[in-house]
Amino acid sequence: MAHHPRKTAAAAAALVALTGLGTAPSAAAPTPTAHARFVPGACPKTAEPVPELAKARCGFLEVPENRARPGGRTIRLATAVIPATSARPAAEPVVFMAGGPGGETFDDIPFLVSSGVNADHDLIVMAQRGNRYDQPNLACPEFDRFTARYVGLGHDSARAKSQMLDAFKQCRDRLTADGTDLGAYNTVENAADFADLRTALGIAEWNVYGYSYGTNLALTLLRTHPEGIRAVAIDSVTPPQSVVLPWGWPSAQEGIGAILDACAAQPACKSRYPDLRKTLDEQVRRLEEKPLTLTARPPKGGDPVKVVLDGGAVLNVLVANTIKPVDVPAAIDELARGNPERFARARAVDSVPAVGMTAHGLTESVACAEWTPGVSESDVLDAGRKAFPGWPDTVLAQTPQLPFQFDVCRTWNVPDRAAQQRVPAVSSVPVLLLSGTFDQKTGAEFAKDAARTLSRSTSVKIPGITHWVVPQSPCAAKVLASFLARPAAPDTGCAAGLTPAPFTITPK
């Protein structure tokens, strides 16, 4: 559920001028609701250049902050429509739903364009409520600054817990003092925003594409506002009915296990790194008992920083994909041989946070209202023990990438929305489910949970790919394009016979 792959400066070819926003509304299309409107305006001035915005049509969707309170505060959601590169695009655009929740949306545009998502369809991107470039913006720079310090603290230390809770309390107090209704930042309201966007733009029918948390949102939209949806593509799937806090453990087990199994299936990797699973187990136990404190230079440069490498840090580095899967066996072997450099540098990534990039206010409002209620600390620990038998309880007590979540939610204090949200989407709309076998954040098996109630679904697994499949796999991009062209009969043939790339083999 955490964020997209590491961004790269992928420049796209110049885009043709935008000529429209899809088809005119048909008689069957609902009219725009009285409480939502689209206001044209300038495109956001992004932190990193997004060349595709030069020819986009931008503006804000204005909607109520809380639809249950008519006459309350209005919020503004930054929106861009990127034209199709085809001279004769399809009538139905593609609307994109980013991950997170709270992940910055506009810096996903180069990845979408380079993957061909707008080749034959206009591409609509809207920052989910509370995101960067929205009004209000639910960034928590207090937490971003904490993450820079967290790399030098034990993953479950009392000091880390105290500093994290203090950061979230400061953020919450600041946001609520400005009048923000944190309870209104949830997936059902998010879905209603997208439904309002379609009608406000006068679009009769569109396609939906989301990844990670965006798949949860896309399925919620399909359940609560199915009108006007031609097809849904979901990538790195998180079904609403399955996203409960302990869910992070089977995902980590599946993704890490798939990497270790793939090494064992490659003769060179198996020969060079025998018993890799046993080696990883030993290193997690060893480092949790006796953590290493060292200095490491962040991968993108800068001064060396203090890094604490314990068992929980090793796990979270793997789940975060900050070590490329092809390098994971080598990194585990090096760790066992007294060289923690790869893990230390990967841990140091967070020492240079992009302050204000992520809307942690949306992240925590969703996590605390929808993922955490109804489960306990012991449920998380039990799931961890099942996933990684023999690992220390101090590692297994914290859901990967969501440490101290129960304590954070007591601080964040938003209403319980689990019953409203943990509901499967039941639909006959064509749905494409894309999964990467090496995904440690949203395990590929969870696509099966979603597919059970989607009668016209097509599921595709791409071997050797981690989180957010399409930008990493030309085959997945081809499958997505085929699905958007023919939702009822996509061509998935390129996935047959794919195998993971060869692993890095270091000298002995």
CATH architecture of the domain at 37-138 and 181-244 and 419-495: 3-Layer(aba) Sandwich
Level-1 CATH class name of the domain at 37-138 and 181-244 and 419-495: Alpha Beta
Shape: globular
List how many beta strands DSSP finds: 11
Largest sheet: 9 strands, mixed
What is the helix fraction of residues, given as a range?
A: 25-40%
Signal peptide: 1-28
Domain Peptidase S33 tripeptidyl aminopeptidase-like C-terminal: 407-493
GO molecular function, one term: aminopeptidase activity
Domain AB hydrolase-1: 93-238
Summarize the structure in words.
The chain has 508 residues and is α/β, with parallel strands linked by helices. It contains 18 helices and 11 strands. Strand 8 and strand 9 form a beta hairpin. Helix 3 packs parallel to helix 15, helix 8 packs across helix 10 and helix 12 packs across helix 15. The radius of gyration is 22 Å and the shape is globular. The N terminus is likely disordered. GO terms for molecular function: aminopeptidase activity.
From the structure above, extract its key features.
508 residues, alpha/beta, Rossmann fold, 9-stranded mixed sheet, two-stranded antiparallel ribbon, 36% helix, disordered N terminus, AB_hydrolase_1
List the topology elements:
Blueprint: E1 37-41, E2 57-64, E3 74-82, E4 94-97, H1 109-114, E5 123-126, H2 141-150, H3 158-177, H4 187-200, E6 206-211, H5 213-224, E7 229-235, H6 248-265, H7 267-272, H8 276-289, E8 292-296, E9 305-309, H9 311-319, H10 328-336, H11 341-348, H12 360-371, H13 377-387, H14 393-396, H15 405-412, H16 418-421, E10 431-436, H17 446-451, E11 457-462, H18 474-485
Parallel strand pairs: 4-5, 4-6, 6-7, 7-10, 10-11
Antiparallel strand pairs: 1-2, 2-3, 3-5, 8-9
Helix pairs in contact: 2-3, 3-15, 4-5, 6-13, 8-9, 8-10, 12-15
